[in-house]
Amino acid sequence: MDVDRKDLRILKAIADEETRSPERIAELTDVPLSTVHYRIDSLRERGIIRNDHYDIDMAALGFPITFIVEVIAEHGEGYREDVGDRLLEIDGVTQVYFAAGDTDFIAISQLSDRSMVESLVSEFESMDGVVRTKSTFTISTLRDGHEPLQQYSMETLVDELLDQER
């Protein structure tokens, strides 16, 4: 990882405020506008910022481990919201899904190393309402679709969204 605190402040402002405006980023971070421009260009050159949407390559940033945890919860009144909300609050958890079948929730995390994995697993296992977890490491990323419409042909989009009576 070849970033410093200033880079991290810029990346965090981009993510938290969902802005691509260098002026807004400068305002949020108290980093001079010219420095924001320079840093964003540098982050692009290093492959950390992937594109004009400012999508972040988490592996290039220093979080190379994609970790998937299936969570089986105690079923009771309000468990979906209670457990789901607690999963959303865990550092490193980037996506949470409520699922049907043998698994109640699926949580996806981007982590830096094995110690972060161990901490995350401990946090899941100590959470009230969690019966057990099943964890999976990914070996490599085949597709990380930040633009989901790219995965559909125009014909499929028209057939599914326009040609059917709803």
Automatic annotation (TrEMBL):
Biological process annotations from GO: response to amino acid
GO cellular component, as recorded: cytosol
The organism's place on the tree of life at top rank: Archaea
Naturally occurring in which organism (per UniProt): Natrialba hulunbeirensis JCM 10989
Molecular-function GO terms, alphabetical: sequence-specific DNA binding
InterPro entries: ArsR-like_HTH (IPR011991), AsnC-type_HTH_dom (IPR000485), Dimeric_a/b-barrel (IPR011008), Tscrpt_reg_AsnC-like (IPR019888), Tscrpt_reg_AsnC/Lrp_C (IPR019887), WH-like_DNA-bd_sf (IPR036388), WH_DNA-bd_sf (IPR036390)
Entry-linked PANTHER family: LEUCINE-RESPONSIVE REGULATORY PROTEIN, TRANSCRIPTIONAL REGULATOR AZLB
Phylogenetic classification of the source organism: Archaea, Methanobacteriati, Methanobacteriota, Stenosarchaea group, Halobacteria
Keywords, alphabetical: DNA-binding, Transcription, Transcription regulation
Entry-linked Gene3D superfamilies: 3.30.70.920, Winged helix-like DNA-binding domain superfamily/Winged helix DNA-binding domain (1.10.10.10)
Domain HTH asnC-type: 3-64
Protein name as annotated: AsnC family transcriptional regulator
Keyword Membrane: no
UniProt-listed Pfam families: AsnC_trans_reg, HTH_24
